[in-house]
Amino acid sequence: MHLSALLALTLGLAPVWAVPTKGLAEFDPQSGAIPIERFHEFEKDLKVLKPRRPKKGTKPDFGLKKDIVLNWDDGQEDIIKAELTASWKEQDEVSVINMADFASALEKVDCTAPTLSMIFSRPELFVEAQKSWEWINGGEKNSVIMFANHRSCGEDKAGAPFRVTGIKFDDKQLTAYAIVEEIANLETVIPDGELVVDSIADIDEPIEEAPEDDPEQADASKVSKRQTVSITPSISLNKDFNNKNIFSIGSGTNYLKLDCTTCGSRGKINIKLYTRIRWFSVQESYVEFRAQEVRAFVNLKLDGKGSKTSKNHKVLFPITAYGFQIPGIATLRLAADIGVGYDASLLGEGQVTWGATAMLTNPSVMRQCFKGCNHINTGWQITTQQVQPAGSGSLMAKISAHAFITPKAEARIFSSGYEVGIALLAPKFDGTALVAANSDGGICAHPKAILGVDIDVKVGLQCYVYAGSNYQSPNWQRTLYERMWTLYDQCFILARKP
């Protein structure tokens, strides 16, 4: 599944992440910790990453080990891969085994607690397993962390972890009965490990230039008592959204409408979620957003007659873009509401158009730290180039508008999660326009000007960290950057006497 459809409006970005880490403080606006938010149907329609099994013909390996490497992927598209490396070398009474290493020796497995049964295909394989696993019964504190990985366990138990505290063998039935408890919180039993979940393939289209006919286009290191979680999908912003009606109210001699005429965005957003654990405790955790080559071109037209006012925001594209899960280990879902916020009014009759091309500082990086690190905020500023306004008729207009996109994401690693978002609204316009006509001239204080638009508009952006389902009324927010500056403050002559 590609992410290239996720960001379909302009520079606006507002991802929300749930950062799953153990041992974090409760929500505190002063510390920057973020409260949990859950999707109502979080577990539905998620792509399940499947554990990678040994190649066919590989000799079954029943040996109990002190470390393990597990791999998952999507099985087809090769977009997301995951690898868990964990070690119990400093715990004499704990060993580990991956069922995938001997799955070819098993005819059937019942992966349910408290007794996990394994039926062997041949007597000699059963005997070999019995010799390797007698250690489990050799000491009162001995236990094995077993990762289930067999086709008969079902998809929901693929890679599920169990703690084996004892085992019995039925020689006649060639069956081993493991006394088990399913491990709900895997991080509580890994003293030393690393988990990395990230995108491997280039899942997005390359960054493109603005349209040629747009005259205003802008140019796993060694394991050492730690556990790392890294989720780094890329999100493409390459999208055009021309001729979109934002709102239309009234009719006849009293109406008002706002259209996005020539609009689009370019660039890419990378997202990284990171958690490090030493000895069953979170030491460091953060979420990071990195914007690369992000630009937008936005041209708006306000058209009306009479006296009308409208203030709201409109979702143009509700999108569920991407979701995957590794049962018992990791889950991620991204969704987005894309649209435009506006506060516009018109008195008179006619229309006015205005716009700008904006480029975000490259790269722009925001790291929201939850524990054991520092917040990082670099960039998140824009440079702009105006589009000359146009108009017709005779009117006074208020023209405030911004484009937005509010991706909502929930990531859960193991058992818990926290949430954070970054809202980027840009370009953001705020001002007034007066369109005037006089066949005798004198418009814009020029004797031959018969039509003109006197426009006073500021442009800028608003960028903030937030939590909650609505970017306009968040549960919590912290400003990263906010600035407005003059885009237009002059009278433009649109027509002259011969």
From TrEMBL:
Keywords: Signal. Residues 235-492 form the DUF7223 domain. Residues 92-183 form the DUF7029 domain. It holds the Pfam family DUF7223. Residues 1-18 form the signal peptide. This is Uncharacterized protein.
